[in-house]
Amino acid sequence: MTLSKSWVASANDANHPFPLNNLPYGVFSVDGSEQHCGVAIGDMILDVTTAEAEGVINLDDEPLFDLPFWNPLMEQGPAVWAALRARLTYLLAEGSEEQDKVEPLLVPQNATELHMPFAVSEYTDFYAGRHHAQNVGTMFRGPENALPPNWLHIPIGYNGRASSVVVSGTDIRRPWGQLKSPDQEKPAFLPSRRFDIELEMGAIVGTPSEGPITVQEADDHIFGYVLLNDWSARDIQAWEYQPLGPFQAKATATSISPWIVTKAALEPFRCDTPAREVPLLDHLKDCGPMLYDIDLSVTMAPEGKPATTIARTNYKEMYYSAAQQLAHHSTSGCPMNTGDLLGSGTISGPTKPERGSLLELSWGGKEPLTLNTGETRSFIEDGDTLTLTGAAKGKGYTIGFGDCTGTVLPAHSSPYAR
Description:
Number of helices: 10
CATH architecture of the largest domain: Alpha-Beta Complex
Mean pLDDT: 97
Radius of gyration: 22 Å
Low-confidence stretches: none
CATH superfamily of the largest domain: Fumarylacetoacetase-like, C-terminal domain
Number of domains: 2
Strand content: 25-35%
CATH topology of the largest domain: Fumarylacetoacetate hydrolase, domain 2
Structural class: alpha+beta
Number of strands: 27
């Protein structure tokens, strides 16, 4: 596939993240006005809420875009998703006969504030990146016991907090928690000293399901993808995670990028999961290319200073696809809802520059990173801004997600001080 030309000139730049091939979905406002659903096209946003109100877009007898989130469209299913994409493509394509109707509905992106693009129903985070799991396991259990016995058979996950999912640009307050090092007799209640990121992709469930679904059915249920940063307090996690896994260490915040890139936009970039060391059981077996070739990177910028790229990797490094994760989630009969968010797990590659967390990059703090500023980091310091970026590269075009960024603020004074 090559670049599809638009009458919106900025969308025809081969390196622009939002060409006509993309058409990602978000929510925006201008100068504190009402939040509207919008579609990114080049440097502009098409006001879909107003387009529907004026009859330029009409997909259903009832309005789908009068609320400031995309869930009403998501629950309609693939046929309506395809109809909207076809209509948007026609309206914005070079030579469109309706350009005069659409042009007044465009808003410059740099004049807007972006908001959460969908209402998160539930949030589940997985531990499904082979290189990340191998690295972390090696650090804590040694290379011979790096992977738990179940890891090559199922995508391991845990239920997170939907209430803590925030849109890119939201500041992140350093959390308090119980910390205990091996040489301490008792834990202490302190701000996290080993605050970290996790470079992930988030898959968004569109249509709900009841009971178990196949991997192919799960793929059909997925509406789109976002970049996802699962902020992690490693020291809180080390003390609390036995025997039930992460809890407060992961509850501070999870940041997502502001634009939902649809599965349709990513279709040309499908790729296979890695070769299986152990054959999967039938209900989880691969049924075609279910991953995507998406370049990912992380930058760190100390307060008031330029950013340093600290990691580069690719989504195709995952061991389990989002479809396999969703199918596994449903095996117990667990209902999946419109707006459910599935975090992929940390995406790391086989080499050190491809590691998607500071825990790995600094090898547990033993090998601090040196930034371009000359400063070193083992974990995040107050004032640091972390930014995740991602893009799939086609022939003469780019499919981008928008940045997923957050700045870490100092911890509040103790919430229990009297």
